[in-house]
## 1
Amino acid sequence: MSQQGYVAAPPYSQSQPGIGGFGSPNSSLHYGHYGDPNSSYSAPQPGVSKSTVPFGSPAPVGPPPPGAQQFSQTSFQNGSGTPGQQPHRFQGPSPPSNTGPSYPPYSHQSQAAFPSTAPASSTAQLADQLNSMQINSYGPGTAPSSAVSPGHPAAFQGPRLLPPSQQQMGLPPAAQLPPPPANSVNGLCAQPALPPMARQGGIPGPVPPNPNLQHLPGQPPGPGYHPQQANYGPQMAASQLSYPGAFPGSPAQLSGPPQKKLDPDSIPSPIQVIENDKAARGGQVYATNTRGQVPPLVTTNCVIQDQGHASPRYMRCSTYCFPLTADMARQARIPLAAVIQPFAAVPPNETPLYLVNHGETGPIRCNRCKAYMCPFMQFIEGGRRYQCGFCNCINDVPPFFFQHLDHVGRRIDHYERPELSLGSYEYVATLDYCRVSTKPPKPPAFIFMIDVSYRNIKSGLVKLICDELKTLLDKLPRIGHDFEENKRHEWNNKKHLAVWKLEWGKQRWNESNLLDQIPELFADTNESETIFAPVIQAGMEALKAAECAGKLFIFHSSLPTAEAPGKLKNRDDKKLLNTDKEKTLFQPQGNYEALAKDCVANGCCVNLFLFPNQYMDVASMGLVTMYTGGTLYKYNNFQLETDSPQFLSDLRKDIQKKMGFDATMRVRTSTGFRATDFFGAIYMNNTTDVEMAAVDCDKAVTVEFKHDDKLNEDTGALIQCAVLYTSMSGQRRIRIHNLGLNCSSQLADVYRTCETDALINFFAKSAFKAVLSQPLKTVRDILMNQTAHMLACYKKNCASPAAVSQLILPDTVKVLPVYMNCLLKSCVLAGRPEIPTDERAFHRQLVMAMGVADTQLYFYPLLLPIHSLDLKSDAVPAAVRCSEERLSEGGAFLLANGLSMFLWLGASVSPELIQGLFNVPSFAHISTEAISLPNLDNPFSKKLKHILEQIQSQKPYTMKLMIVKQREQPEMLFRQFLVEDKNIYGGASYVDFLVCIHKEISQLLS
Ligand SMILES: [Zn+2]
């Protein structure tokens, strides 16, 4: 396997001053000017190279600035603004009904303005260079542990190595590059006039600009939108970096060769990596018997067999070989992290965890470090003692546990005891591990609390929930309930809350009547103000009184403005975007943190179902949910007819989720390193214990490790995660996951075992945590900076000597740039006035709790061509890259990111396919109002339905299907998920980003 997976020469030389405006010290460009109003959207044009014009910009608003455009062909839309510049104006579209992806970007006009073409000369040079980038050894993204000598990556180049001539790109002499414009950030002023549109698919004809999206020269920015005052705060070390989203936009002044169509196939493809791994490891048994072994990708289906290390479903690391010393770690700047999903669901063909019960003795633990008995304990002295693999302490083996050793020093009962031979298992805990150490816990309870204010009664939501609960109760055995109007709580004399409690183990009684009564009981309510914190408080008190842990299900529709604790005010303020104060939008108001802490202390998990039609302060309302391991659901502008299926599906799934309650997680490590930071839907009272009122199968905690000493190559880096929790049946248990990693004094070994998907999970969570305390620009800069450092360190230390101008990416992280770009332009990090604050807070909270498979899909959506389904096969077709170039007018594509799902139909998709899927005769007859496909009795329809179910079944959130027809307005919603393209909110295209990161690497190495 090649270690040097990707080699390319860049289009510029190191000495180029201020090329493209990035990194140029005198440039005011900063990394990620997402908040800039001047950003515009452009769609790549087939055959015209990826040249673009601003979204909705019908006319030039200024002369093109000279120079600095060498790389602008795909970047100039995202330029940053400077004072005095005319911003494009996105007239604030009203949030659409909950018909699609969560944030409502565009007005729903009949015609999308994907603008389109532009003089593309600027693309030429880069196109040339990228076209000639060599991609060798697109092997599986994971490298087998190998004994290759580091420092000679070329030695690992696979057989597909291209001729040397193709490894080098023709570098234009630096002198040919025009100097940067004096004010390169004004690039956006220089948008070219829109030429007659050449539409995707080659359909000529002008595109009526969307009146809501076009730029009106001379028009002031919209109300509340003062981007020119953006204050990026103090410059950081990383501030020299400029995210390509901040490129000046202008038509290129490039004096390059005649333009060529950019060949996207010449840059590393996430799909290629995914497919290669599937081909190499899919459908196989993956045995976890080797320390430091890199598992198959999360996107590869295989059967995992626990042979001594935890399944990657439970624990997945950013690298499977840690650098030996802190110095090495600092040099490489590869995050050392594990993403732990302790209750991950396992498929039926894999063995569930064994339960070990030592009775009153309880689990066997090291006397010194308290690590639990596991395969890393070394038995000595004939089996009478054991040495702890974590702290090296020698412990006596308890008499009841004694066993003789065989000729290799292994206990003869090795394979009979899960705790000796498996990576993951559970212990039954003794009373010592219980909250009240004198008695075992009671089974957890569920409490449902509905906001029965006027709006929810009138919308039918209350009745819907009550009706659903009637059927759900049947699915939960041994359930009883209490009903209480919460009048008894002092703040609430408003009768606007229905509460009832389901307790495991109680007798059922006729709750159906009650559920029928609730909607009637409150039918005449005219209460519109709601409370929120007292609701949680009441639920928590109820659990406390019942002496059990449990989960609250809270259904709520508005900002709690009633006079009561936790009262919130509307503090949404777009003026804060791209200022130092933007972070306050993500910080909670009021005293919700204290409430969250109380809930965690009482094992009270809060699930929140929000139905907003305006700002609800998700950052505050979601906080308790976040800290208690609960799940946040949000249905914008909920409509009974169209949104019920999604909501009910979420509710059903949630109630039936496997989970643990009243949980504490502790991560222990062998000597030389330790867990230093934790990211997730968790609460921490101290620096070591991760507390979760509950943890379900979809929640993952990402843990970062740091060295505190030198590691040991022989013993490796060992990790043990122990989760103490109460099971659904009320048993106190400890779930153990053990994983051993290698250590090496060779950086190449560290790179060779990197896992891009886990890295992105870590980067996303650390960044989304950081937005609470740092300006977003700083956060983006740090991400960019670290990425560049990681790659520069590889080039410097691990790759064979190469010209400064060569871009060299390690095979295992060659798609890190594309994922990193997706993270950088995600709605959380991209402060755009079009994206509602609540939407950003919502996405932030979701991602914080995600496991690796979920972040992978979230940041790089699945795009499936479904017009060419193989009806004979059960398999899901191979995905295509998330770029407009991959769409075809005659095709139909399914896109899913775990939260939203789209079926995109090309304008000339075959009538047979339309008939087969929709049972209508033509494209024009397809209704985009539909939220699901009809059940039709034909193989094509059945197959697609099957695929939809398959995709959905693995995801925690129910994805509402949106039908999108090419060239109709909702297509704009869909397009923002084409993450390799430039985003209309101002994110760079993949190509631009790659060029930018290359520049940064070159600077670091110069
Ligand atoms: Zn120990």
Note: Residues 366, 368-369, 371, 388, 390-391, 393 surround zinc ion (CB under 6 Å).
## 2
Amino acid sequence: MKYIPPKFSKLSEMAAIDVGRLTEDEARTILEGIRWPKGIFCPHCGSKKVTRIEAKSEKVRDGVIQCNDCKGQFTVTVGTIMQRSHITLRQWVQAFYSICSHKKGVSALQLQRNLGLHTYRAAWHLTHRIRTAMKQEPLAGLLKGIVEVDETYIGGKPRKGNGRRNKRGRGTEKTPVMDLIERKGNAISKPIEKVNAETLKGAIREMVDKKSTIMTDEWKAYRGIGSEFLGGHGIVNHGLGEYVSGDISTNTAESYFALPKHGVHGTFHHVSKHHLFRYCDEFSFRWNFRKVSDGERATQAIKGIEGKRLLLKERGE
Ligand SMILES: [Zn+2]
């Protein structure tokens, strides 16, 4: 059979094999199309009157665009999480696609190998930048309808040989993560400092729309939250997977709760408490876009590259 190479148009319609073949120019076209769907505009002044600099000289970077109004120059990476990175655009696109298409994520080590990056550190920064793009904003009132709330505990394997048994659940030394999930809808996970009424209720107040119904287990820290929401507060037994009798959709919530926990243990073996929120952002993002194609999920993640402050402390730099 004669091989006919695919025509590259939209990332949302591409399969992994084609993303792997992208040239630098094709990757740039894809990124520009996602960042500026209605045409390129200057990130400095907003002008749409721009000119592409088509210089043959090796001194001029590829993809430079000049603003006809403020005369400022920019590329597709300026003002995004990709700015000042030494990673090529085709590696960026592949990294986004890869992380978006693996249900449990991709470790930095795996990405380093797949993309041919020189250092583990470069891959590590790359993955964290992509997680920053995946962060959903704003969170205020994001979740609606019937919202299940529960906590899971991640990391901190028990020390062996000291005779102490690792406690499970509330009271453990593992990092508590709060999961909030709409029935059949979006989810948010975030690590919390303390598992107490103040923290749990604070997070619910922030992220859940006031017309919603809150579903939690019978733990006393949640008591009283129902008076603040139009739908009130329903008590369920999360431990038994028994949310509301006769409602089969609760399996969705169960499968979400398991994701960050298994992902962190299975894919990312050493997640520090400090960076755990990034992994939570990644897992909720993939969940919230679970019904679209891998390419569309990657496109949605790339849309988040702009306007995000990167709060990464560049270790050792
Ligand atoms: Zn300008």
Note: The first strand starts at residue 50 and ends at 52.
